[in-house]
Amino acid sequence: MSGGIRIAVVMGVSGSGKTTLARALAEAWPATFLDADDFHSVVAKARMAGGQPLTDRMRAPWVRRIATELQRRAGAGERVALAFSGLRRRHRDRLRATGLPLRFLFLHGDQAVIAARMRARSGHYMPASLLDSQFAALEEPAGEADVMRLSIDEDPALQLQHALALLEARRPTE
C-alpha cells in the first residue's frame, strides 16, 4: 500500500456527504467503515436532535472514544474509513496525536447546497437547523498538510476516484 495511510478521515459539516464517501471508500480501498456519529452519547444525540449544538466540552469525550477505537482497529491491522465532522482543529489534532498514519479528506461546498441535502434526507438525528452552528464551529483546515480538499459538487463516483488517488499519493512528510 503506497503512502502507508491506514486511516482515511472523511470530514466536513453535517450533510456534506461524509458517510456516503466513507462507505464507498471502505468498499473500494478496502477498509472498515466507522461513523463518528455512533460514538456520540445518547445525551449528545438527543441534544442535537432537539436543535441544540454540542459545546467543545461535550465533544471532547466523543473525540477521545473515536481516537481510542482508531488505535484499536489499526493495532488489529485494519484500515479504517471514518466519517467524522472534524470541525475543530483540536479534534483533528487529537486524532493526529494517536500517531497513526492518517489522511483527512475535507468535503467542502456551498452552505445552501448542503442545507438542501439535509432537508431532503430522512432518519437522521441532526436537523438542518443546526447547519449554521456547524459552519460557525468549522475551523477551515488551512495549512494542514494532511488535509486534502474534495468538492461536494463532484459526482460521487468521481469524488471516490479523487479520494482514492489522494490516499495513495505520497506527501512530502511521508
From TrEMBL:
Which E.C. number(s) belong to this protein? 2.7.1.12
InterPro entries registered for this protein in UniProt: P-loop_NTPase, Therm_gnt_kin
What Pfam families does this protein map onto? AAA_33
Pathway of action: Carbohydrate acid metabolism
Catalyzed reaction equations: D-gluconate + ATP = 6-phospho-D-gluconate + ADP + H(+)
Q: Which SUPFAM superfamilies match?
A: P-loop containing nucleoside triphosphate hydrolases
| Keyword match Coiled coil | no
Which named protein is this? Gluconokinase
